[in-house]
Amino acid sequence: xxxxxxxxxxxxxxxxxxxxxxxxxxxxxxxxxxxxxxxxxxxxxxxxxxxxxxxxxxxxxxxxxxxxxxxxxxxxxxxxxxxxxxxxxxxxxxxxxxxxxxxxxxxxxxxxxxxxxxxxxxxxxxxxxxxxxxxxxxxxxxxxxxxxxxxxxxxxxxxxxxxxxxxxxxxxxxxxxxxxxxxxxxxxxxxxxxxxxxxxxxxxxxxxxxxxxxxxxxx
Length: 219
What we know:
By secondary structure, the chain is of the alpha/beta class. It is built from ten helices and six strands, in the order H-E-H-E-H-H-E-H-E-H-E-H-E-H-H-H. The chain has one domain (about 40-210): TIM Barrel (Alpha-Beta Barrel).
């Protein structure tokens, strides 16, 4: 996280969008010469405890400001998709970027017996036009050895429901290194014949540039 913040001034800031601090930071960043593009780390809504339900049901102060300044809000609600869907529905003008397929992912192997159990809910989320989804950490959901061939049928359903222009690829390898290393998280997407070159380009870069309104500067 520290490395990301140092290397990406004007792109990411560390804040919790439910707090007044988020409002102060978004005001400061949007007044500066750089433009804030997202909230990082994401707003979390990841359990069904009473405390988390209370938190997830509160208004997000940064949501209205994000609309005003046209930058998205990252949100993580794996294991609690219903609350996440309600959160998105409460802020129809806010652009949300959903982390990690909205599916609970393991930090250590093996994958759970039914790793894609929440997939129907994820497909339902695609009906919300103000949301896009990160296809990150997908390899950790595999129950087969590298190159994880069993991820492609469920991912095909994600791509069909969301469209490649709303799917942002990522490895999440800093969290998932105990399950897959960086190369193992990248190569299946580069080498698979389940993606056309056009689909791969959108998934592995184009959709991200579109969602965040940012692309690397040319040297």
